[in-house]
């Protein structure tokens, strides 16, 4: 091969010009394309590529031309190496090593991408030749490193890249070559590590010497070499044997700790140290890491951190160094947690207190990111069986909780300057939304740590809360009496501290009361009275004060006498208002605190119903009085308070009494709905009633139809509240005494009745009418009558649309400006229609679990459902159909009693399933057409096409979840807070070993179809619809839907194979062809490919005895040989004979491997891999191994081994003496 020939020079000039052309933005597209074509042709010609490559790689060329020249050489080595002659390989090797020796510029001026490409040439040759055919490589590299810092850096880059490819990334195409290289590196690791450490030591000496002589350029050379040494070591220490890291009395660790104090090297040293302390593996391999708990390493880390913390200027480099140091300390703590207790002699380190002090210092740092690292470690220590009991740790918790109490405050946003942490947040986060996501995650983690600490040291944690709450409330009382302060906003320091205080109080008090060291009733009473005495006039502060009272509410069990005062405080909050504000003009903060008060009533009603039971009449009277004042409570507030009463009412455990109260609650609904018979008579009347056919009215006070809508919303929500909250007693004895028993089953189970059922039943007719009217609004005739101002009223509200698209809902209003948000008429109508549809489906979905068998025994229930919820489905958009499937039908099916399957479920499915086949197939065909068109762009999330794409995927998956509930069963959807559907007959669901949903595990998650599944499949029309849907889903462009369908098909086909009379040969053939289609569509995804292969093999195995035509389908696949199919059938036959039980055996893998080979030609590939150029590596002869010494056979030796004496007369009764004598 010639590098300097005239032909090569001419071609090199043309290649250089082509490189310039491709990088010139002003060049026309066709010209650039022709240049690319020419460069690709040069790559494929070995003679031209090698000649031009070495010529263009000369250091006198421009860097971009040199880079392409090196790229040509790398291409030849990677893809053409096996085609080269020995002479050509030697030529390339010698010229490449010459490039390392003298082919680059000075290491401080040369571009990193040039140095990387030069080192890559050697690395690619190493992958193909070393060590078997290039045994002298390490010595050559060692000699090259002696030529100067530039060559040393290149040699180090060679070691770095080969370690990355072989050990870290493991991206070699040949596993045999990877094993050879790994073994060679391991065998030579002693010399390699010695080489790295000697370079580090020698260049540090020269670095210090040059610095002392003010020779900054030479010092920079040595500094750069040390940086690359540390970068290389960081790759090796992750996987090499631990003996090399701790050899020479831990010389490497000592060096790294020392270099933490050197500004130019501290970052690389810290990253190398981090890789060491992050090592995984066996416990005995990690044990030496505890040497880092010694005084010298600890002080080195602490001093390095202290030197950075004292700096007033924040530089990104120093901040990254601090974060790395934090990770070093936290990973070291994690290693301690792993070893402590598992090894007998690993206990608390001698300087554990010093370590915890360092952790406290890093925890105190203003950076949220650094705090997140330390918070995770504190959680590990506090939950550790042995570390948590350490007096050293427990003694430091008072300091820890003081820091954490400040860290849960919501400040430090990048856009603000209200905290020292803001400047660090700007380095870590691009926007406030990113910061919020991390902050709330870390705060939740911190509060969990606080709860755990409260169980460990309850006295300490309670004392802190006591002091903080007492001091803060007293301070607030004093300030309120002297200063007339403006109202707080969400970023006011006063509110932030109150918010943090309330979070900590709720976390600590509950856990302290669960411990063995409970505080006295007097201390709890004092804190409660202190909170009750503070008359907050700021709505935000009052809201956090309510949270504090909520946290302290548990003390009422100890001091019941204070209950009236607490309730009065809550009622004063839920009726709070600022001067001059009326019901329609309340600010957001006022509305929030009132809602908080109402929600708190529900919370304590659920948590402490036995306490509130004695005050039920008082609460009921107050709620009645407030409800009769039209200017006092909003509908939402009134509804929430009634929910709390219904929750308390459940604990009377008296059917008649509970039923009477529910009747009182529902009487207004009955009266209102009886007056609505005319609006409910037709879609046009209903549209007129709600104002959908009238022009929008502004302001809302003048909208008469708006009041009608409000009445409807109130009735629907109150009905939903009654259904969700009302329940029978969970205690069987109380239920029987209270009159809740409806019937007793033959299997010993008991059917209970819900006290709400007698009052819900009269409302069902109107309810189903409303559901039917809600669907009929989508009929074309109804849409034609919509007023022009409400044309977009049926659209999904923007907030819900953003949730589907995954777009953050950014509010345009300033959170610091407390003004009520005013909706325009279109938004009000949009929210009404959307809320009505969702709430009605929630009512129907909750009715089954809550009301129980009585609901399913409602006369004509399936007809009601088919003619209401399932009417006009072809007019509904996907976002309206989703709640019907997910919210209503899934729980309705799950909680249906078995005796109602035939009469209730089958008529509904007979209507639904055929329609869903047609709809889903039509929608996916439409989506496929869009994806194949040039207008579809996956990255554009603002288009209607993307929204429709997400909706159809969600609808498909949710429908498959419904089918899973029907066919397989599984955990029942918990849609109520009550006690279930009222049947207490043990476990009714099929428990699956692999969890829920259609994941990749597919096969083997349950044994058989559920009882409902068998009932459904026995119905031919439903079975055909379900099967068609699932088979088509295998070819739809949705991997999740494909996995779910594969999972369900496994059970269906297993059942159908036992009822083969239900299938024809064409149907079974279609099943197998659909599996092939799925493999072609989703074969690029490992999870899908594995489950589809299992399904295909299972289908063939189950049906080949009855349907021999399946064999022709396999033979019809491209590239399939008849002997492969015969071999598959032989394995299937062997498996059946040797394993009649069907359990997993060694034959399963062999069958699957053969089947994978048969279908390999049709398995789909990712478009990025479809035309990828394959890299082929030739396996070299195995490396020399010393043969294991062979033990001589007993009959081949003349030596007396004591075998005869074992049975000699001199032995004892057991023959032990003879064998002991022989062994000695």
From TrEMBL:
Originating organism: Petrolisthes cinctipes
UniProt GO MF annotations: nuclear export signal receptor activity; RNA binding; small GTPase binding
Domain Importin N-terminal, chain residue ranges per copy: 39-97
Protein name listed in UniProt: Exportin-5
Pfam families attached to this UniProt entry: Exportin-5, IBN_N, Xpo1
Domain Exportin-5 C-terminal: 316-1166
Top-rank taxon, per record: Eukaryota
Composition bias, Polar residues: 1133-1143
